[in-house]
Amino acid sequence: MSTQRKQYPFTEFEPRWQQHWLEAGAFRAANPGDADFDASKPKYYILDMFPYPSGDGLHVGHVEGYTATDILARFHRMQGFNVLHPMGWDAFGLPAEQYAIKTGQHPRVTTARNIDNFRRQLQAVGFSYDWDREVSTTDPAYFRWTQWIFLQLYNAWFNPATCKAEPISTYTGTEPDSVRLAYVAEMPVNWCPQLGTVLANEEVVDGKSEVGGFPVERRPLRQWMLRITAFAERLLDGLDGLDWPEGIKLLQRNWIGRSKGALVKFQIANAPCDVEVFTTRPDTLFGATYMILAPEHPLVATITTPEQIEAVEKYKASVASKSDLDRTELNKEKSGVFTGAFAINPVNGEKIPVWIADYVLMGYGTGAIMAVPAHDERDFEFATKFQLPIREVVRDNSANDTSSCFAGEGVAVNSGFLDGLQTAEAKQKITAWLEEKALGRGTVNYKLRDWLFSRQRYWGEPFPIVWEDGNHRALTQDELPVIQPDMEDFKPTGTPEPPLSKALEWLKYSDSAQRETNTMPQWAGSCWYYLRFCDATNSDRFIGKEADEYWMARNAKPGGVDLYVGGTEHAVLHLLYARFWHKVLHDLGHVATPEPFQRLVNQGMILGPDGQKMSKSRGNVITPDSVISEYGADSLRLYEMFMGPLEQMKPWSMKGVEGVYRFLARVWRLAMQENQEGEWILSSDLAEIPLNSQQLRIAHATIKKVTSDIRLLAFNTAISQMMVLTNEFVNAKPRPLEALRILLPLLSPFAPHLAEELWSRLGFAGLASKQPWPVHDESLLVENEVELAVQVNGKVRERLVISKVATKEEIEIAALASAKIQEATAGQTIVKVVVVPGKLVNIVAK
RNA sequence: GCCGGCGUGGCGAAAUGGCAGACGCAAGGGACUUAAAAUCCCUUAUUCCGAAAGGAGUGUGCGGGUUCGAGUCCCGCCGCCGGCACCA
């Protein structure tokens, strides 16, 4: 193939049109206030998840999502929308820093080089981004505002009375530092010695770092945290108004993990202290036969009896030495130790033993549970192993065996005043009882934890914070941006001290104050980039009011971005963090909408030709550059869309690329032919003649289907239909020019270079990408006669050509009159005749 | 273990409950050509009957059900992919 002559001269015209669009500013989106801004047009904000500009360059997986959004962007422009379709770079992050350490080059240099390469690649695919709005998270003019948003968080608190973020000045308590949305805490964190950094829980997979797969240990460390848990309920509620795949909403709901239950206070026998437990099944309180504390629970030391101290300490030590990996792997078998202490079950005064076990986590609820082995799998397993009593207190409504554990809902038994109540009622009654006796209360718990927001890295946004006399203090807005110092040596220190701690001069803010040396995680920059795109060069605000009102709020929906396309890997973290920041900014009056992204679509992964995930080690990586040089950008775009449904996972096939390439060449030859010298000239078959009725019908059916399929993101079937149309005209001689006037605008979002080139060679006015979108004429689609199938007992026995407007009765008579049908039903009684006009007739005979 | 998603030709895939396999790939045959490539045309789910025209049957992971009619809806399984994983 590569040695062959190209079937059409894409190598010549594709770069030419790319340059033309760029120079003409063809896809520039005007902002409110600009001279050429037309406020009467509706807006459409279509956003890609911006890439991390890696050294490997653009991937065909990127191109899939980006092509889908590009088609939609171009389509909406042609439909008269003001389209915001921007691109930028999520360019802070660990790989750049590690590469820098390896090669000694400054990450600023390698990042700039990678960005240039990504931009070149994206432009070579012909994407219609408004490059005037390009942003990079590493640009001080950008991260100045990331730091500014951090200051908003620092200077705000969550007011439980209003359920909103408010300026810290409205807080009337005595300890503002204990309620800020950005706060400092000593946290057991995931320290990765090899990476020399602390990782977020989300960056640790199976006890190893997600990047690199290095072991991770738990260590207590002073960290910046963001109080995302305060927004748990709002983040949950907000999902209802969004057009996201239900699966993704569910993922977020599960991640937030709301559960309703009760806190119950247990007195410790012969000791002046009590332990609070959280339970979702307060109705099973009578069945609590023992209690378990997390090994790290602060009361363990207090309550353990002298005889048990040795065993307890030994157990605690063994748990502490386990990495997260060991702890999960050893989960199969329950372990634990008796503390020697007893707690008093408040509901019946029973003395129950208190154990410690690592299946109870300090980080959830109160770090202590009441164990109800009859109705909880884990407690059952534990009780069985350590021969603790099991008491049934809920009977299964569909009553069968009571030998094992029953965790469902039923009727309370052996439960005193709860007996006979259904689980829901029993929960209510016991909660009211506990509240009345001041022994507990109903409450809600979340799995969601606060967001660990600091990293021990060089290549990230520095915090706009200084330390003075052991206290933190925020810088003011006019001190932003805080830029990292230029360092020769940004290697990890080998301790949890961040690399910035080595920049002694930079560190010193004043004689008495030192800068914070942690940096922000990569999520920070991507939490708000969609806002910056609306007003990328504004130096007075992170986003101008007018720009926000138009691009984000004009459609009067909760989410501002009309369509957001990206991979599922960001289903939880990025999308949750961005929603959190957005809500804070909204509460503080900085943005108009309550949610960032109205509609979300996840593109499926593209696998290698071998059906495996693409990876360098497997050697099955397809690069966009290689496809473009062989078949051109239009073929790359078209194939990525023709492969199958956008959201589905699908394998690459070079043969498939050739297929769409042939199609594009066929379109080319609808308009062009080669002369004796082998030059492309306008086809002599072209003529200004009207379409015949079949051509008209197919052309208008194509307009209709392509239009609706683009709206449905069903690009593969839209392309099929354009193939049908093209096949129809391949042999038409003379060939109506009108066919190309219809086809080229339809094709233009998909294969913009080819459409543009032919449009211009045919001498049609303007740019193909600026044409109004064709509108179909429904009346041309109607056929006078239709063929319908006649079935006998569901099997097709005859085909009937009949007038489109025939009545049911006429169709039935015609069907029954058919010789084949009479033969097929001979000797049988016709029980029923079902007539579906335009489709079929089904005769039921016995 | 729990929660999602998906199972259709040799392959990628189509199909408001209404003729399964559009469109593309691959394969086979033909036209054009000195020849090849490219291009264009035809065939192509499968089994059986027939010399042929044509005809009969079976087919959407498996087993049931609802319906005149099920790839599509319902119930129960199996397989693959993704997420969560002691969250009390």
Describe the structure.
The chain is of the alpha/beta class and 846 residues long. The chain contains 26 helices and 38 strands. Strands 12, 13, 14, 15, 16, 17 and 20 form a seven-stranded mixed sheet that branches. A four-stranded parallel sheet has the order 2-1-26-28, with helices on both faces. Strands 8-7-11-21 form a four-stranded antiparallel sheet. α20 packs across α22 (715-730), α21 (693-711) runs parallel beside α23 (737-747) and α23 packs antiparallel against α24. The longest helix has 19 residues, at 60-78. The two termini are 61 Å apart. The mean pLDDT is 91. The protein binds one RNA strand of 88 nucleotides through α7, β13, β17, α11 and β30.
What attributes characterize this protein structure?
RNA-binding; alpha/beta; 7-stranded mixed beta sheet; 846 residues; globular; 26 helices; 4-stranded parallel beta sheet; single chain
Sequence-ordered SSE layout with sheet pairings:
Elements: H1 10-24, E1 43-48, H2 60-78, E2 82-84, E3 88-89, H3 94-103, H4 107-125, E4 135-136, H5 140-154, E5 156-159, E6 164-167, E7 182-192, E8 197-199, E9 204-205, E10 208-209, E11 217-226, H6 232-238, H7 246-256, E12 259-268, E13 274-279, E14 290-293, H8 300-303, H9 309-321, H10 324-329, E15 337-344, E16 351-356, E17 368-371, H11 377-386, E18 394-396, E19 410-412, H12 423-436, E20 440-445, E21 451-452, E22 465-468, E23 471-474, H13 504-507, E24 513-515, H14 523-526, H15 529-532, H16 545-552, E25 559-561, E26 563-566, H17 573-587, E27 595-597, E28 600-602, E29 606-607, H18 624-631, H19 633-642, E30 650-651, H20 654-671, E31 672-674, E32 680-682, E33 686-687, H21 693-711, H22 715-730, E34 735-736, H23 737-747, H24 752-761, E35 785-792, E36 795-803, H25 808-817, H26 819-824, E37 830-836, E38 840-845
Parallel strand pairs: 1-2, 1-26, 3-4, 14-16, 25-27, 26-28, 29-30, 33-34, 35-38
Antiparallel strand pairs: 5-6, 7-8, 7-11, 9-10, 11-21, 12-13, 12-15, 12-20, 14-17, 15-16, 18-19, 22-23, 22-24, 31-32, 35-36, 37-38
Helix pairs in contact: 1-24, 18-19, 19-20, 20-22, 21-22, 21-23, 22-23, 23-24
The structure holds one RNA strand of 88 nucleotides.
